User: Which sequence fits this backbone?
């Protein structure tokens, strides 16, 4: 029994000492800077790691650090969810000090029009637009539909027969409404069929007739030469006024007489009232990053056009996009069954049934189902409650940020462990070492190895 | 293993073989698998999270080795969850929720080694069977999967959802209440079909609803920790692996053979279908296994078949999920989406062209899955005695550290404290529900499956202009609905019948 404990002490104390040295080194190695930026800048990506927006931001991050355009590192924070509104709200409510910046595309405009949130681009300071992706309309290769006019004519002659993949509330949905409007009487069955990959497989399976995709999705999903036509996809229109060099044979909507265009542009936003100097610093950094060769090469691979707009050009572009989407922004009432009500009714019904069962049967069979027959012991709900309260206190501390993460966590482990010792004695000294190890160790792993923020 | 003629015949196989058989390749797979098992076992940390976190670290590295590393983490993480699920009743990952149902009772009955041994062998078998599908049938299967439309998905999910009525405790009413509570609590947030927020009570953070990870950690880990603290004065019966072997005998394979193959095939198939992952694979396999069993009443009380079905199926989903990823560039779940991102970052074009343009990457992915499965089984079997010691770590050391990981894990999901509060709230909810003997398994099944069923039904209705008929007029959909009905009704009819035959004096079995 002695040896493992001794071994534990030696290991834990060495590790703690190393971690403390690391903390001290880190604290002293940061030189006092003057002017913005003085500390790492958080870039909020309102989508999952590994997704399109995330990949784009990480490419720019690479360019910015390669050319040393900023004195401080960029930390990318993924805050997915709520169609991008969880992340955008985080930045909207952040301090306007330039240390939290958002990169978000057109969905920031449509989220307001779709009434997902009550704020739009006007709640931010736009910094710049960097890079845009062309959009195409796809059908299955064996489809009789040859072009966009064909598609809309069919939708007019046989209303609601064309199932069209575009997510309600997203930019593509508003563009679809514009398409319908371009040929009065045309009626598409708009299906919120999920991400690009989902829509692609639904088109191949014949569950959708057409859908809006990004150019890069089209080029990725397109089969090799000689793929049977019922296993391949075909672009019938580019939503633009100019053909794209990578698909020169695909006509644009504008040349077919349908004046509806859409690109997916990436915008950079700062919280409202961020000082103009900081916005300038950022606009310059992004302009330079968009000249970096690695960035250009990577964007070319993603089929993203390396466009760049700031100041008045940026404002014009935003105004125009907002105007376009606003033309079709009446909210259609959803005619889908209200599933929440049905589930609620069933829930209430089963609750009543379960309650009746409990009161009528009066626990007739408190059977000894528990396979473990143990000796009687005293229950300690008091300790459980005390521990839970301590845990809530810990989370509150993290929320306010009064204590650094490592110290708060070490204190939490020590205090909760200490509470439990009232019921199951253990060694204080081991617990304290463990507490310090947990606090410092998790901070080391998450900030140094994974470069991700902790509460 | 690979003959030279084969290498010559398949371009790219050579490069993949070189990459994986090099010392660096083997080390990468071993470290990845071990890390995966670790994060899989710790409640709060998941493979998805680790893969997303290490992805930026692989930017500068060799693409083949990077991908092998990520795949190894994936394999390890899905398997590691069973350790804590079995020993502590805290599923380390969503994939091992179902393993707690029979694994934990087995451990409590003094058979933790047997439970883990079965779990490891089932995982290995599941991984291998799905690997065979991956290697032999990638492109035909991927094409078949696109035949699934919205209604087919809906009916398939209903097939798994009926489990809320048959799983869990003795009271049908309580199980159904729990299941519908799960479905209901999954509803707040933005409705995928309409794009509008609902049931958010004006709390903007709820626009994204309650996320699975904090809910799961709360219901199982936090709840179990609170319960363990309440019972802290209980002298825990020492769970010893003792002389009991963790290695299985040939007779075990014969006894569980059919279940292994069936569950692996179900798992593979669920993995192939985009949008539903490992947790649903194990639910479905468990459910099918239980309804086909001659002794369904044993499920949930420490039945070996339950552990086998769950673990074979959740590992089999990996091979399944890689099929559409490789053949068509379709991600089946968040993990695959991150893997897809990794391909893009390393300069490869995922999609139908991947096979012809970068065959070496395809073979590396396949090879890494194979090697990682073997490494996983070997690591787990030989470290079993060490792993089982986790039960002996005094509670005041173990539980606070797990709590710390739970908080970090919930926070890291989308970098906000709201998810941590959700975790705490569901911890209390789970504790209260179990205190009044309402089972949690139906809750979590409803929570996971409810939204998928609703979304696919809604999209189906959008596509059919409001008609429900396709549910029964589409042949595949009809088949699933009939199976669902049979699974719902047959166990009850069986009980009725047997009690009828046994005569009125006999107590009904259940």
Assistant:
């Amino acid at each position: 029994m002695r040896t493992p404990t001794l071994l534990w002490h030696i290991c834990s104390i060495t590790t703690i000492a190393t971690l403390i040295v690391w903390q001290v080194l880190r604290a002293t190695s940061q030189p006092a800077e003057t002017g913005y930026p003085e500390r790492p800048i958080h870039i909020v990506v309102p989508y999952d790691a590994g997704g399109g927006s995330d990949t784009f931001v990480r490419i720019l991050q690479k360019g910015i650090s390669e050319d040393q355009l900023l004195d401080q590192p960029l930390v990318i924070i993924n805050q997915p969810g709520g169609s991008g509104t969880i992340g955008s709200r985080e930045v909207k409510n952040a301090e306007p000090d330039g240390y939290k910046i958002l990169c978000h595309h057109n969905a920031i405009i449509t989220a307001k029009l779709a009434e997902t949130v009550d704020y739009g681009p006007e709640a931010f300071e736009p910094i710049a637009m960097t890079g845009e992706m062309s959009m195409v309309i796809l059908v299955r290769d064996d489809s009789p539909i040859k072009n966009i006019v064909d598609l809309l004519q069919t939708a007019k002659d046989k209303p609601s027969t064309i199932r069209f993949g575009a997510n309600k509330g997203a930019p593509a949905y508003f563009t679809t409404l514009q398409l319908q409007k371009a040929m009065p009487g045309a009626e598409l069955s708009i299906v919120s069929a999920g991400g690009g990959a989902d829509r692609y497989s639904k088109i191949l399976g014949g569950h959708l007739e057409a859908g809006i995709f990004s150019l890069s999705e089209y080029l990725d999903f397109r089969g090799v030469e000689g793929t049977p036509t019922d296993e391949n996809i075909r672009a019938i229109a580019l939503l633009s006024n100019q053909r794209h060099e990578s698909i020169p044979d695909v006509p644009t909507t504008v040349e077919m007489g349908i004046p509806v265009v859409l690109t997916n542009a990436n915008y950079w936003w700062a919280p409202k009232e961020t000082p103009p100097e900081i916005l300038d610093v950022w606009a310059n950094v992004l302009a330079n990053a968009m000249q970096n060769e690695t960035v250009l090469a990577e964007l070319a691979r993603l089929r993203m056009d390396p466009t760049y707009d700031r100041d008045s050009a940026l404002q014009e572009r935003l105004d125009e996009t907002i105007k376009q989407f606003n033309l079709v922004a009446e909210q259609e009432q959803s005619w889908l069954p209200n599933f929440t009500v049905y589930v609620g009714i069933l829930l209430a019904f089963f609750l009543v049934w379960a309650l009746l069962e409990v009161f009528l049967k009066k626990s007739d069979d408190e059977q000894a189902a528990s396979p473990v027959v143990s000796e009687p012991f005293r229950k300690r709900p008091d300790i459980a409650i005390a521990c839970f309260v301590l845990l809530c206190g810990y989370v509150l501390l993290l929320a306010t940020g009064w204590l650094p993460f490592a110290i708060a966590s070490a204190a939490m482990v020590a205090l909760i462990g200490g509470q439990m010792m009232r019921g199951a004695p253990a060694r204080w000294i081991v617990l304290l070492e463990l507490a310090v190890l947990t606090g410092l160790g998790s901070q080391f792993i998450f900030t140094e190895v994974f470069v991700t923020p902790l509460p | 293993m690979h003959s030279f003629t084969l290498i010559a015949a398949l371009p790219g196989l050579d490069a993949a073989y070189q990459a994986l058989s090099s010392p660096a390749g083997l080390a990468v797979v071993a470290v990845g698998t071990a890390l995966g098992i670790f994060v899989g076992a710790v409640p709060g940390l998941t493979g998805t999270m680790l893969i997303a976190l290490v992805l930026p670290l692989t930017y500068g590295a060799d693409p083949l080795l990077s991908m092998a590393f990520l795949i190894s983490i994936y394999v390890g993480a899905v398997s590691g969850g069973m350790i804590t699920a079995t020993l502590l009743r805290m599923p380390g990952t969503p994939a091992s929720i179902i393993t707690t149902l029979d694994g934990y009772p087995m451990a409590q009955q003094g058979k933790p080694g047997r439970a883990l041994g079965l779990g490891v062998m089932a995982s290995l078998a599941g991984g291998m069977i799905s690997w065979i599908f991956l290697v032999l049938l990638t492109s035909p299967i991927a094409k078949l999967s696109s035949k699934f439309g919205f209604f087919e998905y809906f009916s398939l999910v209903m097939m798994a959802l009926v489990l809320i009525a048959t799983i869990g405790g003795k009271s049908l009413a309580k199980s159904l209440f729990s299941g519908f509570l799960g479905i209901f609590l999954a509803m707040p947030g933005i409705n995928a079909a309409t794009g509008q927020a609902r049931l958010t009570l004006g709390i903007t953070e709820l626009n994204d609803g309650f996320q699975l990870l904090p809910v799961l950690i709360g219901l199982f880990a936090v709840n179990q920790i609170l319960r363990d603290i309440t019972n802290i004065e209980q002298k825990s019966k020492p769970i010893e692996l003792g002389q009991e072997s963790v290695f299985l005998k040939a007779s075990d394979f014969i006894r569980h053979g059919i279940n292994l193959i069936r569950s692996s095939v179900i798992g593979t198939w669920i993995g192939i279908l985009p949008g539903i992952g490992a947790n649903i694979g194990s639910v479905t396999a468990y459910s099918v296994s239980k309804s086909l069993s001659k002794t369904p009443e044993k499920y949930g009380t420490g039945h070996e078949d339950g552990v086998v079905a769950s673990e074979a199926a959740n590992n089999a989903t990996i091979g399944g999920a890689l099929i559409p990823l490789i053949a068509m560039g379709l991600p089946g779940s968040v993990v695959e989406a991150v893997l897809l991102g990794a391909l893009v970052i390393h300069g490869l074009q995922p999609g139908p062209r991947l096979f012809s343009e970068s065959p070496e990457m395809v073979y590396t992915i396949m090879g890494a899955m194979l090697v990682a499965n073997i490494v996983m089984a070997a690591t787990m079997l030989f470290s079993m005695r060490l792993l089982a010691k986790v039960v002996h770590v005094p509670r005041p050391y173990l539980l606070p550290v797990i709590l710390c990981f739970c908080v970090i894990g919930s926070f890291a999901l989308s970098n906000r404290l709201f998810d941590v509060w959700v975790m705490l709230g569901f911890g209390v909810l789970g504790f209260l529900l179990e205190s009044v003997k309402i089972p949690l398994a139906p809750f979590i099944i409803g929570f996971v499956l409810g939204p998928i069923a609703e979304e696919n039904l809604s999209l189906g209705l959008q596509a059919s202009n409001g008609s429900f008929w396709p549910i029964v007029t589409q042949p595949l959909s009809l088949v699933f609905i009939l199976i669902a009905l049979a699974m719902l009704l047959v166990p009850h009819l069986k009980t009725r019948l047997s009690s009828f035959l046994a005569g009125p004096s006999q107590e009904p079995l259940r």
Summary: DSSP finds 15 helices and ten strands in chain A.
